[in-house]
Amino acid sequence: MSRLTFKGGVHPHTDGKDMSKASPIEMYQPKGEVVIPLAQHIGAPATALVKKGDRVLVNQKIGEAAGFISANIHSSVSGTVKKIEPRLVASGDKVMSVIIENDGVYEEMPEQERKSPEELTREEKLEMIREAGIVGMGGANFPTNVKLSPKNWEEIEYYIVNGAECEPYLTSDYRRMMETPEEIVKGVKIALSLFPKAKGIITIEDNKRDAIVRMKEAVKGDPDIAVKTVYTKYPQGGERTLIYATTGREVNSSMLPADVNCVVNNIDTVHAIYEAVEYGKPLNRRIVTVTGDAIASPGNFNVAIGTNMAELVEAAGGFTTQPEKLIAGGPMMGMAIYDLNIPVTKGTSALLCFSKDEVRANEPSNCINCGRCVSVCPGRVMPARLAVLAEHGDKEGFLALNGMECCECGCCSYICPAKRNLTQSIKSMRKDILAERRKK
Protein backbone atom coordinates (compact mmCIF):
# COMPACT_ATOMS: atom_id res chain seq x y z
CA MET A 1 0.00 0.00 0.00
CA SER A 2 1.19 3.53 -0.78
CA ARG A 3 0.32 4.80 2.69
CA LEU A 4 0.62 2.95 5.99
CA THR A 5 -2.94 2.08 6.93
CA PHE A 6 -5.43 -0.78 7.30
CA LYS A 7 -8.64 -2.05 5.71
CA GLY A 8 -11.83 -0.31 6.80
CA GLY A 9 -12.16 2.53 9.27
CA VAL A 10 -13.90 5.90 9.17
CA HIS A 11 -13.13 9.60 8.95
CA PRO A 12 -15.19 11.36 11.66
CA HIS A 13 -16.67 14.60 10.29
CA THR A 14 -14.81 16.59 12.95
CA ASP A 15 -11.84 15.56 15.01
CA GLY A 16 -12.18 18.37 17.55
CA LYS A 17 -8.46 18.39 18.27
CA ASP A 18 -8.05 22.08 17.48
CA MET A 19 -9.88 22.89 20.71
CA SER A 20 -7.03 21.70 22.94
CA LYS A 21 -3.99 20.78 20.82
CA ALA A 22 -2.30 24.16 21.38
CA SER A 23 -2.80 24.01 25.15
CA PRO A 24 0.41 23.01 26.98
CA ILE A 25 0.15 20.43 29.73
CA GLU A 26 -0.81 22.05 33.05
CA MET A 27 0.03 20.50 36.42
CA TYR A 28 -3.15 20.13 38.46
CA GLN A 29 -3.24 19.21 42.14
CA PRO A 30 -6.53 18.00 43.66
CA LYS A 31 -8.22 20.25 46.22
CA GLY A 32 -10.10 17.81 48.43
CA GLU A 33 -10.18 14.07 48.98
CA VAL A 34 -9.03 11.65 46.33
CA VAL A 35 -10.71 8.35 45.53
CA ILE A 36 -8.22 5.74 44.32
CA PRO A 37 -9.90 2.55 43.00
CA LEU A 38 -8.12 -0.73 43.65
CA ALA A 39 -9.18 -2.00 40.21
CA GLN A 40 -7.82 0.26 37.47
CA HIS A 41 -6.63 -2.54 35.22
CA ILE A 42 -7.57 -5.76 33.49
CA GLY A 43 -7.27 -8.68 35.92
CA ALA A 44 -7.67 -9.12 39.66
CA PRO A 45 -8.22 -5.99 41.80
CA ALA A 46 -5.31 -5.02 44.02
CA THR A 47 -5.43 -5.84 47.74
CA ALA A 48 -5.47 -2.82 50.07
CA LEU A 49 -2.28 -2.37 52.11
CA VAL A 50 -3.61 0.49 54.24
CA LYS A 51 -6.50 0.93 56.66
CA LYS A 52 -8.67 3.75 57.95
CA GLY A 53 -6.64 6.30 59.90
CA ASP A 54 -3.29 5.53 58.25
CA ARG A 55 -1.21 8.44 56.98
CA VAL A 56 0.08 7.90 53.47
CA LEU A 57 2.67 9.68 51.34
CA VAL A 58 2.95 10.45 47.63
CA ASN A 59 4.25 7.37 45.74
CA GLN A 60 3.43 5.02 48.63
CA LYS A 61 2.07 1.65 47.55
CA ILE A 62 -1.45 1.35 48.94
CA GLY A 63 -2.63 -1.65 46.88
CA GLU A 64 -0.73 -4.88 46.17
CA ALA A 65 -1.22 -6.69 42.85
CA ALA A 66 -3.32 -9.78 43.52
CA GLY A 67 -1.86 -12.23 41.03
CA PHE A 68 0.04 -12.22 37.75
CA ILE A 69 -2.61 -10.29 35.80
CA SER A 70 -3.00 -7.41 38.23
CA ALA A 71 -1.30 -4.11 39.05
CA ASN A 72 -0.03 -2.25 42.10
CA ILE A 73 -1.78 0.94 43.19
CA HIS A 74 0.04 3.97 44.65
CA SER A 75 -1.07 7.11 46.42
CA SER A 76 -0.93 10.34 44.41
CA VAL A 77 -1.22 12.62 47.48
CA SER A 78 -0.17 12.70 51.10
CA GLY A 79 -2.85 12.60 53.76
CA THR A 80 -5.01 10.33 55.90
CA VAL A 81 -7.03 7.33 54.78
CA LYS A 82 -10.66 8.24 55.57
CA LYS A 83 -12.21 4.92 54.56
CA ILE A 84 -12.00 1.99 52.17
CA GLU A 85 -15.31 1.37 50.46
CA PRO A 86 -16.94 0.84 47.03
CA ARG A 87 -17.12 4.02 44.94
CA LEU A 88 -18.58 4.79 41.51
CA VAL A 89 -16.22 4.77 38.50
CA ALA A 90 -16.69 5.72 34.83
CA SER A 91 -17.99 2.27 33.82
CA GLY A 92 -20.98 2.73 36.12
CA ASP A 93 -19.73 0.04 38.49
CA LYS A 94 -18.83 0.50 42.12
CA VAL A 95 -15.23 -0.48 42.82
CA MET A 96 -13.50 -0.92 46.19
CA SER A 97 -11.49 2.27 46.63
CA VAL A 98 -9.12 3.95 49.07
CA ILE A 99 -10.41 7.40 50.03
CA ILE A 100 -7.62 9.74 51.16
CA GLU A 101 -8.09 13.17 52.72
CA ASN A 102 -5.50 15.25 50.89
CA ASP A 103 -3.44 17.36 53.32
CA GLY A 104 -2.08 19.52 50.49
CA VAL A 105 1.53 18.95 51.59
CA TYR A 106 2.40 16.32 48.93
CA GLU A 107 5.09 14.77 51.11
CA GLU A 108 6.80 12.03 49.12
CA MET A 109 8.20 8.67 50.09
CA PRO A 110 11.97 8.81 50.76
CA GLU A 111 14.01 8.12 47.64
CA GLN A 112 15.62 4.69 47.45
CA GLU A 113 19.12 4.10 46.17
CA ARG A 114 18.87 2.86 42.60
CA LYS A 115 21.02 1.86 39.66
CA SER A 116 21.09 3.61 36.31
CA PRO A 117 19.03 1.92 33.55
CA GLU A 118 22.24 0.74 31.88
CA GLU A 119 23.26 -1.18 35.02
CA LEU A 120 19.95 -2.99 35.41
CA THR A 121 19.31 -6.52 34.20
CA ARG A 122 16.24 -7.36 32.09
CA GLU A 123 14.56 -8.93 35.14
CA GLU A 124 15.27 -5.88 37.30
CA LYS A 125 13.73 -3.53 34.72
CA LEU A 126 10.59 -5.67 34.46
CA GLU A 127 10.34 -5.76 38.25
CA MET A 128 10.56 -1.96 38.42
CA ILE A 129 7.80 -1.67 35.80
CA ARG A 130 5.67 -4.17 37.75
CA GLU A 131 6.34 -2.41 41.04
CA ALA A 132 5.35 0.94 39.50
CA GLY A 133 1.89 -0.40 38.65
CA ILE A 134 2.10 0.60 35.00
CA VAL A 135 -0.81 -0.43 32.76
CA GLY A 136 -1.72 0.36 29.16
CA MET A 137 -2.78 4.01 29.17
CA GLY A 138 -4.34 4.02 25.72
CA GLY A 139 -7.51 2.44 27.10
CA ALA A 140 -6.68 -1.27 27.42
CA ASN A 141 -5.39 -1.01 31.02
CA PHE A 142 -3.45 -4.29 30.62
CA PRO A 143 -0.53 -4.66 33.08
CA THR A 144 2.55 -3.51 31.16
CA ASN A 145 5.07 -5.82 32.81
CA VAL A 146 2.99 -8.78 31.59
CA LYS A 147 2.83 -7.41 28.05
CA LEU A 148 6.61 -6.94 28.07
CA SER A 149 7.14 -10.55 29.21
CA PRO A 150 5.86 -12.72 26.34
CA LYS A 151 7.01 -16.34 26.25
CA ASN A 152 8.85 -15.69 22.99
CA TRP A 153 10.54 -12.47 24.17
CA GLU A 154 13.78 -13.41 22.46
CA GLU A 155 11.95 -13.54 19.09
CA ILE A 156 10.19 -10.15 19.28
CA GLU A 157 11.08 -8.14 16.15
CA TYR A 158 9.09 -4.92 16.53
CA TYR A 159 8.33 -2.72 19.49
CA ILE A 160 5.58 -0.46 18.16
CA VAL A 161 4.70 2.78 19.95
CA ASN A 162 1.19 4.08 19.37
CA GLY A 163 1.36 7.83 18.88
CA ALA A 164 -1.51 7.85 16.39
CA GLU A 165 -4.09 9.17 18.89
CA CYS A 166 -6.84 8.49 16.37
CA GLU A 167 -9.79 9.24 18.69
CA PRO A 168 -11.38 12.62 17.92
CA TYR A 169 -10.89 15.44 20.49
CA LEU A 170 -8.01 13.73 22.37
CA THR A 171 -4.69 15.60 22.43
CA SER A 172 -2.91 14.29 25.54
CA ASP A 173 -0.53 12.01 23.60
CA TYR A 174 0.10 14.79 21.08
CA ARG A 175 1.13 17.16 23.86
CA ARG A 176 3.34 14.45 25.38
CA MET A 177 5.17 14.10 22.06
CA MET A 178 5.48 17.85 21.64
CA GLU A 179 6.73 18.56 25.14
CA THR A 180 8.84 15.53 26.16
CA PRO A 181 10.07 13.78 22.99
CA GLU A 182 13.50 12.93 24.45
CA GLU A 183 11.92 11.21 27.45
CA ILE A 184 9.71 9.15 25.15
CA VAL A 185 12.76 8.02 23.18
CA LYS A 186 14.50 7.03 26.42
CA GLY A 187 11.44 4.98 27.34
CA VAL A 188 11.54 3.26 23.94
CA LYS A 189 15.23 2.43 24.45
CA ILE A 190 14.46 0.89 27.85
CA ALA A 191 11.74 -1.26 26.28
CA LEU A 192 14.01 -2.26 23.39
CA SER A 193 16.66 -3.41 25.87
CA LEU A 194 14.19 -6.12 26.96
CA PHE A 195 14.12 -7.67 23.47
CA PRO A 196 17.48 -8.57 21.87
CA LYS A 197 16.19 -8.60 18.26
CA ALA A 198 13.63 -5.80 18.34
CA LYS A 199 13.56 -2.52 16.44
CA GLY A 200 11.42 0.38 17.60
CA ILE A 201 8.68 2.01 15.51
CA ILE A 202 6.99 5.21 16.70
CA THR A 203 3.78 5.68 14.71
CA ILE A 204 2.12 9.08 14.29
CA GLU A 205 -0.84 10.04 12.10
CA ASP A 206 -0.14 12.41 9.23
CA ASN A 207 -2.37 15.13 10.72
CA LYS A 208 0.28 15.72 13.43
CA ARG A 209 3.10 17.03 11.25
CA ASP A 210 4.77 19.05 14.01
CA ALA A 211 4.83 16.02 16.33
CA ILE A 212 6.36 13.94 13.53
CA VAL A 213 9.12 16.53 13.08
CA ARG A 214 9.71 16.72 16.84
CA MET A 215 9.96 12.93 17.27
CA LYS A 216 12.19 12.50 14.20
CA GLU A 217 14.59 15.03 15.67
CA ALA A 218 14.61 13.08 18.94
CA VAL A 219 15.49 9.74 17.25
CA LYS A 220 17.96 11.21 14.76
CA GLY A 221 21.03 9.03 14.46
CA ASP A 222 19.50 6.07 16.33
CA PRO A 223 19.56 3.02 14.01
CA ASP A 224 17.14 1.05 16.20
CA ILE A 225 14.20 3.48 16.28
CA ALA A 226 12.20 4.81 13.34
CA VAL A 227 9.31 7.28 13.23
CA LYS A 228 6.67 6.15 10.74
CA THR A 229 3.80 8.26 9.45
CA VAL A 230 0.45 6.48 9.28
CA TYR A 231 -2.67 7.57 7.45
CA THR A 232 -5.14 9.62 9.51
CA LYS A 233 -8.11 7.34 9.95
CA TYR A 234 -10.02 5.90 12.88
CA PRO A 235 -9.19 3.40 14.49
CA GLN A 236 -5.61 3.66 13.22
CA GLY A 237 -4.28 3.42 16.78
CA GLY A 238 -5.87 0.04 17.52
CA GLU A 239 -3.36 -2.68 18.32
CA ARG A 240 -4.32 -4.96 15.44
CA THR A 241 -4.70 -2.15 12.91
CA LEU A 242 -1.38 -0.58 13.89
CA ILE A 243 0.48 -3.87 13.54
CA TYR A 244 -1.06 -4.43 10.10
CA ALA A 245 -0.31 -0.87 8.96
CA THR A 246 3.36 -0.97 9.98
CA THR A 247 4.32 -4.62 9.36
CA GLY A 248 1.58 -6.14 7.17
CA ARG A 249 1.07 -8.86 9.79
CA GLU A 250 -2.46 -9.84 10.83
CA VAL A 251 -3.63 -10.55 14.37
CA ASN A 252 -7.06 -12.01 15.16
CA SER A 253 -9.00 -12.35 18.42
CA SER A 254 -7.41 -15.70 19.30
CA MET A 255 -3.88 -14.29 18.94
CA LEU A 256 -1.61 -11.92 20.80
CA PRO A 257 0.69 -9.38 19.12
CA ALA A 258 3.60 -11.49 20.37
CA ASP A 259 2.35 -14.30 18.11
CA VAL A 260 3.51 -12.18 15.16
CA ASN A 261 6.62 -11.06 17.05
CA CYS A 262 5.31 -7.60 17.93
CA VAL A 263 4.67 -5.67 21.15
CA VAL A 264 2.60 -2.48 21.17
CA ASN A 265 2.50 0.26 23.81
CA ASN A 266 0.86 3.68 23.96
CA ILE A 267 2.98 6.87 24.01
CA ASP A 268 2.03 7.72 27.60
CA THR A 269 2.74 4.14 28.70
CA VAL A 270 6.25 4.44 27.26
CA HIS A 271 6.76 7.65 29.22
CA ALA A 272 5.62 5.88 32.40
CA ILE A 273 8.17 3.11 31.69
CA TYR A 274 10.87 5.77 31.43
CA GLU A 275 9.91 7.36 34.76
CA ALA A 276 9.70 3.98 36.52
CA VAL A 277 13.10 2.69 35.39
CA GLU A 278 14.96 6.02 35.41
CA TYR A 279 13.58 7.41 38.68
CA GLY A 280 11.69 4.58 40.38
CA LYS A 281 8.47 6.60 40.04
CA PRO A 282 5.14 4.76 40.18
CA LEU A 283 2.20 5.50 37.90
CA ASN A 284 0.05 7.81 40.00
CA ARG A 285 -0.51 10.70 37.58
CA ARG A 286 -1.55 10.95 33.94
CA ILE A 287 -2.43 13.54 31.29
CA VAL A 288 -6.15 14.12 30.75
CA THR A 289 -7.68 16.18 27.93
CA VAL A 290 -10.69 18.19 29.13
CA THR A 291 -12.57 19.51 26.12
CA GLY A 292 -15.83 19.86 24.21
CA ASP A 293 -18.04 22.76 23.14
CA ALA A 294 -19.48 23.05 26.66
CA ILE A 295 -16.03 23.69 28.21
CA ALA A 296 -14.85 27.29 28.59
CA SER A 297 -11.09 26.69 28.24
CA PRO A 298 -10.29 23.23 26.84
CA GLY A 299 -6.85 21.97 27.82
CA ASN A 300 -4.55 19.15 28.87
CA PHE A 301 -3.86 18.53 32.53
CA ASN A 302 -1.30 16.43 34.39
CA VAL A 303 -3.66 14.97 36.97
CA ALA A 304 -3.21 12.97 40.16
CA ILE A 305 -4.94 9.59 39.99
CA GLY A 306 -8.07 9.77 42.15
CA THR A 307 -8.87 13.42 41.36
CA ASN A 308 -12.58 14.15 41.11
CA MET A 309 -13.75 14.81 37.53
CA ALA A 310 -15.79 17.82 38.66
CA GLU A 311 -12.53 19.50 39.72
CA LEU A 312 -11.17 19.12 36.19
CA VAL A 313 -14.17 20.95 34.78
CA GLU A 314 -13.38 23.84 37.14
CA ALA A 315 -9.71 23.74 36.11
CA ALA A 316 -10.82 24.10 32.48
CA GLY A 317 -12.86 27.21 33.23
CA GLY A 318 -16.17 25.49 33.97
CA PHE A 319 -19.14 25.03 31.66
CA THR A 320 -20.24 27.62 29.12
CA THR A 321 -23.61 25.88 29.04
CA GLN A 322 -25.09 22.89 30.81
CA PRO A 323 -23.87 19.87 28.81
CA GLU A 324 -26.26 17.22 27.53
CA LYS A 325 -23.48 14.64 27.09
CA LEU A 326 -20.49 13.75 29.24
CA ILE A 327 -17.97 11.13 28.11
CA ALA A 328 -14.99 9.64 29.92
CA GLY A 329 -12.52 8.92 27.12
CA GLY A 330 -12.94 9.51 23.40
CA PRO A 331 -16.29 9.89 21.60
CA MET A 332 -15.87 6.59 19.71
CA MET A 333 -14.84 4.17 22.47
CA GLY A 334 -15.31 6.20 25.65
CA MET A 335 -18.09 5.71 28.18
CA ALA A 336 -20.99 8.11 28.66
CA ILE A 337 -21.21 9.16 32.30
CA TYR A 338 -24.10 10.65 34.23
CA ASP A 339 -22.18 11.93 37.25
CA LEU A 340 -18.97 13.97 37.46
CA ASN A 341 -18.39 12.72 40.99
CA ILE A 342 -16.07 9.96 39.78
CA PRO A 343 -12.27 9.69 39.95
CA VAL A 344 -9.59 9.95 37.31
CA THR A 345 -7.98 6.52 36.89
CA LYS A 346 -4.94 5.21 35.03
CA GLY A 347 -7.12 4.66 31.96
CA THR A 348 -8.78 8.11 31.89
CA SER A 349 -7.54 9.79 28.73
CA ALA A 350 -10.16 12.54 28.50
CA LEU A 351 -13.31 14.15 29.80
CA LEU A 352 -15.55 15.37 26.97
CA CYS A 353 -18.44 17.74 27.62
CA PHE A 354 -20.89 18.45 24.79
CA SER A 355 -23.79 20.88 24.71
CA LYS A 356 -25.86 18.48 22.59
CA ASP A 357 -26.31 14.71 22.76
CA GLU A 358 -26.17 13.80 19.08
CA VAL A 359 -26.70 10.09 19.74
CA ARG A 360 -29.91 10.60 21.69
CA ALA A 361 -31.18 13.05 19.06
CA ASN A 362 -31.10 10.31 16.42
CA GLU A 363 -33.90 7.76 16.65
CA PRO A 364 -32.77 4.30 15.39
CA SER A 365 -34.72 2.86 12.48
CA ASN A 366 -34.75 -0.46 10.62
CA CYS A 367 -31.64 -1.73 8.86
CA ILE A 368 -31.70 -0.92 5.14
CA ASN A 369 -29.05 -3.55 4.28
CA CYS A 370 -26.75 -0.94 2.76
CA GLY A 371 -23.57 -2.74 3.82
CA ARG A 372 -21.78 0.38 5.02
CA CYS A 373 -21.05 -1.20 8.40
CA VAL A 374 -19.29 -4.07 6.63
CA SER A 375 -17.22 -1.72 4.48
CA VAL A 376 -15.79 0.18 7.46
CA CYS A 377 -15.31 -2.73 9.89
CA PRO A 378 -11.58 -3.26 10.61
CA GLY A 379 -12.42 -6.72 12.00
CA ARG A 380 -13.94 -7.73 8.61
CA VAL A 381 -17.22 -8.98 10.11
CA MET A 382 -20.89 -8.18 9.46
CA PRO A 383 -21.97 -5.85 12.27
CA ALA A 384 -25.63 -5.56 11.27
CA ARG A 385 -26.09 -9.34 11.32
CA LEU A 386 -24.12 -9.72 14.54
CA ALA A 387 -26.23 -7.06 16.25
CA VAL A 388 -29.45 -8.93 15.38
CA LEU A 389 -27.99 -12.18 16.72
CA ALA A 390 -26.89 -10.40 19.88
CA GLU A 391 -30.33 -8.86 20.40
CA HIS A 392 -31.86 -12.34 20.14
CA GLY A 393 -29.30 -13.93 22.45
CA ASP A 394 -28.07 -16.32 19.73
CA LYS A 395 -24.54 -17.03 20.94
CA GLU A 396 -23.95 -19.93 18.55
CA GLY A 397 -24.92 -17.84 15.54
CA PHE A 398 -22.86 -14.95 16.85
CA LEU A 399 -19.75 -17.12 17.14
CA ALA A 400 -20.39 -18.72 13.75
CA LEU A 401 -20.21 -15.25 12.15
CA ASN A 402 -16.93 -14.52 13.96
CA GLY A 403 -18.46 -12.03 16.38
CA MET A 404 -15.44 -12.19 18.66
CA GLU A 405 -13.34 -10.51 15.95
CA CYS A 406 -15.14 -7.25 16.74
CA CYS A 407 -12.79 -4.76 18.43
CA GLU A 408 -15.68 -2.57 19.64
CA CYS A 409 -14.28 0.47 17.84
CA GLY A 410 -17.69 1.97 17.03
CA CYS A 411 -17.13 2.46 13.29
CA CYS A 412 -20.31 0.58 12.41
CA SER A 413 -22.51 2.65 14.71
CA TYR A 414 -20.91 5.85 13.41
CA ILE A 415 -21.48 5.06 9.73
CA CYS A 416 -24.96 3.47 10.02
CA PRO A 417 -27.55 5.65 8.20
CA ALA A 418 -30.31 4.00 10.27
CA LYS A 419 -28.50 5.09 13.47
CA ARG A 420 -28.71 1.61 14.97
CA ASN A 421 -26.78 0.91 18.17
CA LEU A 422 -24.71 -1.84 16.57
CA THR A 423 -21.57 -1.60 18.68
CA GLN A 424 -23.51 -1.59 21.96
CA SER A 425 -25.41 -4.78 21.07
CA ILE A 426 -22.28 -6.59 19.89
CA LYS A 427 -20.30 -5.42 22.91
CA SER A 428 -22.91 -6.81 25.31
CA MET A 429 -22.85 -10.22 23.62
CA ARG A 430 -19.06 -10.34 23.59
CA LYS A 431 -19.01 -9.48 27.29
CA ASP A 432 -21.39 -12.37 28.07
CA ILE A 433 -19.37 -14.85 26.02
CA LEU A 434 -16.07 -13.79 27.59
CA ALA A 435 -17.62 -14.10 31.07
CA GLU A 436 -18.75 -17.65 30.28
CA ARG A 437 -15.29 -18.57 29.02
CA ARG A 438 -13.68 -17.25 32.20
CA LYS A 439 -16.01 -19.41 34.31
CA LYS A 440 -15.03 -22.50 32.34
Walk me through the structure.
This protein has 440 residues and is α/β, with parallel strands linked by helices. Helix content is 28%, strand content 19%. Among the domains are: 119-279, NADH-ubiquinone oxidoreductase 51kDa subunit (Rossmann fold, 3-Layer(aba) Sandwich), CATH 3.40.50.11540; 372-439, no CATH class. The chain has helices at 122-131, 144-147, 172-179, 181-192, 209-219, 239-247, 267-279, 309-315, 358-361, 372-376, 383-391, 395-400, 411-415, 422-439, and strands spanning 25-28, 34-37, 47-48, 55-56, 61-64, 73-74, 79-88, 94-102, 158-162, 199-205, 225-230, 262-266, 285-291, 299-304, 325-328, 335-336, 350-354. A six-stranded mixed beta sheet has the order 1-14-13-17-15-16. The chain has a four-stranded antiparallel beta sheet with strand order 2-8-7-4, with no helix packed on it. A hairpin with a 6-residue loop joins β15 (325-328) and β16 (335-336). α3 (172-179) packs across α5 (209-219), α4 (181-192) packs across α7 and α11 (383-391) packs across α14 (422-439). The longest helix is centred in the C-terminal third of the chain and has 18 residues, at 422-439. The model has no long low-confidence stretch (mean pLDDT 95).
